[in-house]
Specification:
This protein is mostly helical and 326 residues long. It has a single domain, classed as NCX, central ion-binding region (A middle domain of Talin 1, Up-down Bundle), CATH 1.20.1420.30. The chain contains 13 helices and two strands, in the order H-H-H-H-H-E-H-H-H-H-H-H-E-H-H. The chain has a two-stranded antiparallel ribbon. The longest helix has 33 residues. The protein is globular. The two termini are 20 Å apart.
Length: 326
């Protein structure tokens, strides 16, 4: 099992680095073509952090490891809520943006419930995947239209874009092609390593996807969210997590259904999807309470270290339950 483990670790490192190279190249190409910095920040930069998940999902589905892909999507969402948001709240308190309560959080709750309804037959079919991706396209269109006019979001997105290297057209295309090639290659290596580890340990690929792969592919989101919070944009950290979770549910999880329809394990809906639903509901509750607290006392934030510790503890309990039932 040593070779698969080394392959997995190296693949994770290359995956994270190549995602940055890919985003830098794609953003520079868009910038050289005259696209608005705000739009670049809201689309290419924001979705670029999800590149590892989507490439791993596609590779796993094409390799006949659909369980790994589905586990990666749901496990990444659980990691985003329990690990990424939890650590961010421990590092920096977060003020709740009013738009999060009015738009982003209700959207995530509806999508979580809708995707769960599609999976009640314990199968991920092609029609389910098409519906999921269609909803994601509508959400992206609506988000771009509404957020471009939001001065706070626009300023944060523009600053995020300005921190990327400004490459010449030739170097931008080289970076784009290199990043994409390494993303594909490292994704294939990661799926192979994860599958071999699952075989050696005698556990389902779904569990490896829910744990090792999910945490590894969530590292870029963790880095981006904490960095954004430390730069003074803590208020958009929850938005980053919500956006990533929407993308994982509607695109990453849709890939195996689109490319190779998959039967789900019997305990997946209750244990894993159920844990994700509980974490999402918990987030909705603290966002609501945080918004009420902000209105009552604008100088302070409800979402701080205690809430972060609560999410991290919940993530640890999920891992305990997962391994107890495997």
């Amino acid at each position: 099992m040593i070779l698969p483990l080394i392959t997995l670790l190296v693949a994770f490192a290359i995956l994270v680095w190549s995602a940055d190279v890919f985003v830098a190249g794609a953003a520079s190409i868009a910038d050289n073509a005259g696209l608005s910095p705000v739009v670049i920040g809201l689309t290419i930069v924001s979705l670029g952090t999800s590149a590892p998940e989507i490439l791993v999902s596609i590779t796993a589905a094409l390799s006949g490891s659909g369980g790994l892909a589905i586990g990666n999507a749901v496990g990444s969402n659980i990691a985003n809520l329990g690990l990424v948001l939890g650590i961010t709240l421990i590092v920096v308190p977060i003020q709740v943006h009013p738009g999060c309560l009015r738009s982003e959080m209700p959207t995530l709750l509806l999508v979580t419930a809708g995707a769960g309804i599609l999976l009640l037959d314990v199968r991920l079919e092609r029609i389910d995947a098409i519906l999921m991706m269609s909803v994601m396209a509508l959400i992206l269109y609506r988000m771009i239209r509404s957020q471009v006019s939001d001065p706070d979001v626009g300023e944060a997105a523009q600053e995020e874009d300005e921190e990327l290297p400004q490459l010449t057209p030739a170097r931008a295309w080289v970076a784009f092609a290199t990043g994409l090639t390494l993303l594909i290659g490292s994704s294939r290596a990661l799926v192979w390593g994860a599958s071999e580890i699952a075989l050696s340990l005698g556990v389902p690929e779904l569990v490896i996807g829910l744990t090792i792969v999910a945490v590894g592919t969530s590292l870029p989101e963790l880095a981006a969210t904490v960095a954004s919070a430390l730069r003074g944009h803590a208020e958009i950290a929850i938005g980053n997590v919500i956006g990533s979770n929407l993308f994982n549910l509607l695109v990453v999880m849709a890939m195996p259904g689109l490319l190779a329809p998959e039967a789900l394990p019997e305990n997946f809906l209750l244990r894993d999807y159920g844990a994700m639903c509980l974490a999402t509901i918990a987030l909705a509750i603290v966002v609501f309470l945080g918004y009420r607290h902000r209105r009552a006392d604008p100088g302070h934030s409800f979402l701080g270290r205690p809430v972060g510790l609560l999410f991290c503890a919940g993530y640890g309990l999920y891992y305990y339950g997962l391994f107890q039932t495997t």
